[in-house]
Amino acid sequence: MSGYDPAGYGDAVAREYDVLYPERELDTDATVALIAELARRRPTTSVLEFGIGTGRLALPLQRLGLDVAGIEISEAMLERLRRKPGGGELQVVLGDYVDTYVPGTFSVVVLAFNGIFDPRGRDAQLATFRNAASHLEPAGCFVVEAYVLSEAERSGQWTILPRHVARKHVELQLARYDQTTGNVARTLVHLRTTGVDFVTSQELYSTPDALDVMAEVAGFRLSDRWAGWTGEAFTSTSRKHVSIYERTHPR
Questions:
Q1: CB distance 133 to 233 below 8 Å
Q2: What confidence tens digit (pLDDT) does each residue in 184-240 have?
Q3: Where do the H-state alpha helices sit in 57-207?
Q4: Is 81 in contact with 54 (CB distance < 8 Å)?
Q5: Contact by Cβ (8 Å): 75, 53
Q6: What whole-number distance in Å separates Cα of residue 196 and Cα of residue 27?
Q7: Digit-coded pLDDT (tens) for 141-196
Q8: Angle, to 10 degrees, between the axis of helix 122-135 and the axis of helix 208-217?
Q9: What values do phi and psi take at 191, rounded to 5?
Q10: 236 Cβ contact partners less than 8 Å away, ≥ 6 residues apart
Q11: C-alpha to C-alpha distance for 161 and 171, rounded to whole angstroms
């Protein structure tokens, strides 16, 4: 994808990320609990997070006694992580999780909050699966969290969502799905007492079935799929999925 900067979004929102995406809104406790359970079922109880960001998941996992590492491409996000208690103790490699390698093997690789929808194309998304496989021990698993577009959202019309509403800061998220390319274009409009800011981003949407095909090509099989982090049944009306992919053959 020409002109795409994979660090751009993180650099743009790093300063306010923890405010815009509070832990309670993202089911952080349930997310951490499930990842920890998956890791403890396996020999090394180690976790690698693709897109570790400001440490929303990594820091509580570390406090639970797991060995945690991460990959992050935004230096601004890493700076915020390093300022937090325990952030300096994490093994984090600066780079693109599509192809960056972290030494060692892990029980669980996790890519949360729609990070699999790399806008550079299906090849980049498949490469992400392959990179996860390259980091996993033989019994390891890759955990992917992603949204599912509703029928109305697939119509190609603009949708507007008030994503964050506070006394002096409102974020409106405008999004549109392109039926011909599969791209989701977003403009985040930040309204503050000091003025207005715009942040743009793009994603290449993949259905759960399409992700399953990539996973199979990369040496995984789907072992579980839920509509959330507490094991809710995934149905035709679910708006997101948490998918657990287990390795099926050596790297």
A1: no
A2: 999 999 999 999 999 999 999 999 999 999 999 999 999 999 999 999 999 999 999
A3: 58-63, 75-83, 122-135
A4: yes
A5: no
A6: 29
A7: 999 999 999 999 999 999 999 999 999 999 999 999 999 999 999 999 999 999 99
A8: 50
A9: -100, 115
A10: none
A11: 8
| Domains of the chain, first to last | 8-149+207-247 (3.40.50.150), 153-202 (2.20.25)
Measured CA distances, 32 to 26, 60, 68, 73, 176 (Å):
11, 7, 12, 22, 31
* Pair 35, 52: CB distance under 8 Å: no
Q: Which tokens in the block code for residue 30?
A: 């349930």
Amino acid at 146: A
Task: List the structure tokens of 139.
Answer: 């019994």
What DSSP string describes the chain?
-TT--TTHHHHHHGGGHHHHS-GGGGTHHHHHHHHHHHHHTSSS-EEEEES-TT-TTHHHHHHTT-EEEEEE--HHHHHHHHHSTTGGGSEEEES-TTT---SS-EEEEEE-TTTT--TT-HHHHHHHHHHHHHHEEEEEEEEEEEE---TTGGGS--EEEEEEE-SSEEEEEEEEE-TTT-EEEEEEEEEETTEEEEEEEEEE---HHHHHHHHHHTTEEEEEEESSTT-PBP-TT-SEEEEEEEE-S--
Tell me the two tokens of residue 71: 């990959």
45's tokens: 């109880």
Give the amino acid at 165. V
Please, are residues 32 and 60 in contact by the beta-carbon 8 Å criterion?
yes
Q: Which residues pair with 162 in a beta bridge?
A: 172
Number of Cα atoms under 13 Å in the Cβ half of residue 220: 32
